Amino acid sequence: MTGLTRRAALHGVAVGGVAALAGCTEAGDPIPGGNGTDGGDRRDGDGNASDGGDGGDGVTTAVQQVGAALSGPAWNRNERRGFCALITEEHGEGAGLFDDAPERVRAFVEETDFAASRLCYVESVGPDTCHDEIAFGGVAVEDGTLVANATVQGPGGDDVTCGEAITYSAALLRVTSDPLPRAARLSVTDGWGETGTVRDADGIRDPEGLAGEIRPDHGPSNVPASFDCDAEGAERHPQLYEGGVNWGGAGGVGTGAGGDGPLALRVVIPGDDAPGSDPLAIGRGTAFRIELTNVSGRTAYVGSRGQYNLEVLTEAGWTELRATEGDPAVGYDDVAIGVPPGGTLTWEFEMSESGLVGDGPQADAFRVCPDLVPGRYRFVFFGADDLAVAFDYED
Questions:
Q1: What are 238-279's pLDDT values in tens digits?
Q2: Whole-prediction pTM value?
Q3: Pairwise CA distance, residues 172 & 278, whole Å
Q4: pLDDT number for residue 289
Q5: CA distances from 347 to 172, 181, 183, 288, 337 (A)
Q6: Measured CA distances, 128 to 56, 62, 222, 315, 333 (Å)
Q7: Are 43 and 157 in contact (CB under 8 A)?
Q8: Where are the domains of the chain?
């Protein structure tokens, strides 16, 4: 992931593997051309690239088996047959998927002339360790869309011993054509013989299925008149967003920029599913987290993870919790963090004065002032479309 370190003091990173670029699956008929290997892979047993031959109508192909799926995977085999990504530049969107790929795979990418070719990365799944390669057939470019059949290959005989393990496999299809494809639509058949349509531009996560909540559906039980810090020379962390916020992002419930964008923000409170409990009520000392998930099939870029406000609702409006003595002089690195499809950025907090600052950005300079009071609080990430979630503090 671009600009993303393995560990950050306050913010953990959870992704569905190294990276994921996905399309969604729906019921559909196989693409004409069947599930054979015309224009497809010739299994050579060692994962090396093979000449796919002609895909028809001036389309030339080559195949590189990747081995284990690079995405983690970040998709549910019970909901889809696999996913695909169309790679249009060696170092462009999606290319980071191959950072931890085998050397032969990285070499295949580097050898691709993107002025004349495109790469289609495909994942699927099979019932045992012998279902570990993907073959292609029926390859063509139709109205700017790459179409093909992708089929998980089994052992090829009954005398082969296979390990009993669900196996996710992946392959790269290089397509040389004129014109070049701008999108991909594949008929993917997994190792159980189940077939579905996979597109490169569809999302991989359903916002409705994400853990956590967006904001309470009832009014706050307490709204303080103000949240004033009496410390001499105290200055609050500035509120670095403009106007209304976007509640929850994708699949959210409010207004603001980016409501139909790729990112979904949720607040997750462990134990909030207890019978009769308020799912968005946090007691003092309770640990909770904020999760930002890319639900789309494309890498989404956000700003520094420190670009957020923590606020309490008062009669005067939303007020930042953190203050410092003197000029706060807040500054953030001008970086872009790439969140892969299915990837999640996580902020971890504890509901206390120290736990809301913790090891976060500029923690040495800021503190919660005054002490927390019961009421409604919110987290606003202005690093991406002013996304927000809210919750209640119950002392």
A1: 898 988 999 999 866 544 444 457 899 999 998 755 555 678
A2: 0.61
A3: 48
A4: 95
A5: 35, 39, 34, 9, 15
A6: 33, 26, 57, 61, 46
A7: no
A8: 11-17+206-394, 25-199
